[in-house]
Amino acid sequence: xxxxxxxxxxxxxxxxxxxxxxxxxxxxxxxxxxxxxxxxxxxxxxxxxxxxxxxxxxxxxxxxxxxxxxxxxxxxxxxxxxxxxxxxxxxxxxxxxxxxxxxxxxxxxxxxxxxxxxxxxxxxxxxxxxxxxxxxxxxxxxxxxxxxxxxxxxxxxxxxxxxxxxxxxxxxxxxxxxxxxxxxxxxxxxxxxxxxxxxxxxxxxxxxxxxxxxxxxxxxxxxxxxxxxxxxxxxxxxxxxxxxxxxxxxxxxxxxxxxxxxxxxxxxxxxxxxxxxxxxxxxxxxxxxxxxxxxxxxxxxxxxxxxxxxxxxxxxxxxxxxxxxxxxxxxxxxxxxxxxxxxxxxxxxxxxxxxxxxxxxxxxxxxxxxxxxxxxxxxxxxxxxxxxxxxxxxxxxx
DNA sequence: TCTGGGGTCCTAGGACCC
DNA sequence: TCTGGGGTCCTAGGACCC
Length: 398
Prior knowledge:
single chain, 21% strand, five-stranded antiparallel beta sheet, alpha+beta, 40% helix, DNA-binding, Alpha-Beta Plaits, 13 strands, Dna Ligase, domain 1
């Protein structure tokens, strides 16, 4: 049989319980125990990841800590160490780059690889086992690898077996292997859409693909979402691994939830300025300029509003962020409300060198200013080292 | 049970222009 | 006594992901 020229060999490589696995390496006494990564010594907040042992008790990522303790009072909760996770990310990625440079990094614990060029030299399963073994022996991490002709199917395949899974999913396997799975296993079906489908009797991917349900599903989620899912499941979605997919940042933001409600305006302004500095530092580090500043406020009823202001020209000044945030706060702060979360963001970003107006009018001043402000920021933030962990495991962990 | 943080993308409505 | 229509930009909200 002739093989299509476009046929590709895509791997999706996914670290198993990544944060917990790193914590086990750092502290081997955690091994085999029911533990989770979150915030030590508090009942507020949610978990980032749960160990496989903890998952047996129904504990998963994004679960409120108090609820997890309810399920398992002896649960161990440890603080996360994000900079460590980044180091381990670099370590396992280095191994993957030995095999190909056609890699799309999807998040800190997973990536897609185009392995098509290996077909003549090595059987895909042999190749995948080799990579798994290298990551396990050299870094100490277990991963699952999904092998398929498209990115979507490869991701579905890597989810099917954990830990150290290795699943091949060809187009002709879709009916047998994918159709029995729940619709919630589809990338893009989340906690709003899933119940909607279930209420209407659409429980499995097979139900979703049944043409008899087509009109019903379109009435529930719209034609665009319907077509999106169908083409992905059929294996007609992208097989292009795009190294640069996430290289251009669209927005930079920070936000924080407070244990006690923020009551005074001056208090809120202080916190927002601190956040503005942190956003600005990342902006400078990425060498971006911005056009839009966004303020986020969430009140005691969990109602969230975002208010933004855009400029006609690209901006690079910390004080523009300060002033805009205060302006927005003046306009939209409601003193009868109590706020539990506040946040600052910038968007409409371009790289400094790509900003025409910017180059034209401000470039000569830019480097001096940038260096001066970076130095000030470094001084200000020197003593702020505490790390807040904010990353969840994969969807299966939830 | 009581709901983190940092992102992306999509949609809908209004303003504005021709 | 009727009030086009397409394109684009902006804002706000929301779903979803890890």
